[in-house]
Amino acid sequence: EKGGYDHFMLKEIFEQPQTIFDSLRGRLDAKQGTLTLGGIRGEYEDMLKNAKRIIMVACGTSWHAGLIAEYVIEELCRIPVEVEYASEFRYRNPVIGEGDVIIAISQSGETADTLVAIEAAKKKGAIILGVCNVVGSSIARLSHAGAYTHAGPEIGVASTKAFTAQLAVLNMIALKIAKDRGTITDQRYQYLLNELDAISDKVATALKLSDSIAAIAAKYKDARDFLYLGRGYNFPVALEGALKLKEISYIHAEGYPAAEMKHGPIALVDEHLPVVFVATKDSYYEKIVSNIQEIKARKGKVIAVVTEGDETIRGLADDVIVVPEADELVAPILSVIPMQLLAYHVGVQKGYDVDKPRNLAKSVTVE
Ligand code: M6R
């Protein structure tokens, strides 16, 4: 059942090259330069193209996927995007108007907070697009249109393959809107189709790091707290890394935008604090190098996820995890892999049941 793996979580982490491929299959054709999303057609295609605002509604890991999509959609489509915790959105009488499109992101499609939030928004006349993994789930059925993530059943309580599939689908949605609106050049469109098409092979390469990440986990598994930092597209990846560690290893972890660190969290830094930097080569790179120096100056331990060929951070960090190069818009699909593996190995080494962490349920069906 676990396909030879010790845990569903590990199996699902390792399935990602295939599940990402599956979520792109039949939709993205890099050779032809085309993108088709069968579940978003006709009037809904037009509504999305002409959206005045897009609101992402989700919880947990799915909310992190929404945060990344916010950056991607704003960059490519020039449509303002808001990302809402479903529970907060629901109960604060949100302003929803004509031209607003809601994207509900949910692996299970049964998360109560997300479900009631979109029910309420639908009553107010909002258009709902569902990005769900479970076919025929409540959120999928309630949505006007949408795109399934096709990651296959996710058994581990910690979401892994559903997250990367969500990112793949949200990237396709962003590229489609950008193309329809004419906010992207043909050249960049084709380039990003190629980058997305190439990402599952790079994920396969990153998975080979599992043993070396297990060794890093062994070094830091007794830490009381972890800090996770990233900027730009990798900021939500830092949040996701911290969430994974909390869930699976019961170590307190916080994710922050790297620059925000100096507005408070830096007070926590001493020689006992491991700080995980998601620092792949992107337009924020120089800035994050300075943030790493700030942590080292305070004797924090730095574990950095970097791009192949990076020598600068290698010279600064205590441990580096090297992943292939990828465009910054698709990079989170890759940079989250070491986050998942680190949490997994720490949890296993601490002797916990990583598939069923305490106090957690696979789908949270209470508000
Ligand atoms: O099924 P959903 O995507 O709606 O679930 C949302 C969250 O409950 C979920 O992502 C949760 O945070 C996971 N345990 C994260 O690993």
UniProtKB/TrEMBL annotation:
The keyword Lipid metabolism is annotated on this UniProt entry: no
EC number assigned by the record: 2.6.1.16
Keyword field: Aminotransferase, Cytoplasm, Glutamine amidotransferase, Repeat, Transferase
Active-site residues, as the UniProt record annotates them: 362 (for fru-6p isomerization activity)
Record's subcellular location: Cytoplasm
GO molecular function terms listed in the Swiss-Prot or TrEMBL record: glutamine-fructose-6-phosphate transaminase (isomerizing) activity
The keyword Cytoplasm is assigned to this record: yes
Chief site of localization: cytoplasm
Reactions mediated catalytically: D-fructose 6-phosphate + L-glutamine = D-glucosamine 6-phosphate + L-glutamate
Superkingdom per UniProt: Bacteria
Domain SIS: 44-183, 216-357
Subunit and partners: Homodimer.
Function: Catalyzes the first step in hexosamine metabolism, converting fructose-6P into glucosamine-6P using glutamine as a nitrogen source.
Protein's name in the database: Glutamine--fructose-6-phosphate aminotransferase [isomerizing]
Organism annotation: Chitinophaga horti
Residues of the full protein shown: 247 to 613 of 613
